[in-house]
Amino acid sequence: MHRIFAGLAFWTAGALVAEFVLGLLVSQSVRAGHLESAQALFSWHMLLGVGIGTLVTVLHVMTMFHFIGSGREIKEHAEILGDNARIVREVRRFKALTFPFATFAPIVTGAAVILGGGAHMQALPAWVHWVVGLAALAFNGVAFPVEYRCLKLNLDLIHEVDERVRRDISPAMFRDSTS
Q1: Average pLDDT in the 131-156 region?
Q2: How many domains is the chain built from?
Q3: What CA–CA distance (Å, rounded) separates 36 from 43?
Q4: Around 37, how many Cα atoms within 13 Å sit in the side-chain half-sphere?
Q5: What single-letter DSSP state applies at residue 82?
Q6: Which stretches within the chain are classed as H helix?
Q7: For the chain, what is the largest distance between any 2 Cα atoms, rounded to a whole number of angstroms?
Q8: In a domain, 80, yes or no
Q9: CB–CB of 63/152 below 8 Å?
Q10: What separation in angstroms does the CA of 11 have from each of 4, 122, 163?
């Protein structure tokens, strides 16, 4: 999961930066009076913004679902092993670190998308969209490494629990077929 997340986070971060640059170019074109190029750039800015809002949401929600599902399985196996205190603490720690980011990054990004529409329609000042857009860029920039690190540690915990189940609970089921 952490490899899939890393790839998606990399492309999403690149798209967020590209979206920011497009926003700058739209502003510069409008100020310079190049309204035709500003309109073309704005169309791309709007389309990319909606796509990024969707992608960010899917990426973070996917991470939360992974922790919900794997955490449940890890806890069940740890209970069978009889040593669930440390393992349950680790699972809770991973969730405590990732869930705030995985919850608020899509909210802030979605707000930037929605407020961008409001700024375009001149229902609110453009600086509001800029501030929330920068917050979305920063929030995701912090969230991606934290979530990746926790996904990797979670995988290590899954491997540890699996190995203990193989060794302690059902060694006959997992004997090497060559022996």
Answers
A1: 95
A2: 1
A3: 11
A4: 12
A5: T
A6: 2-31, 35-81, 84-120, 126-164
A7: 79
A8: yes
A9: no
A10: 11, 31, 34
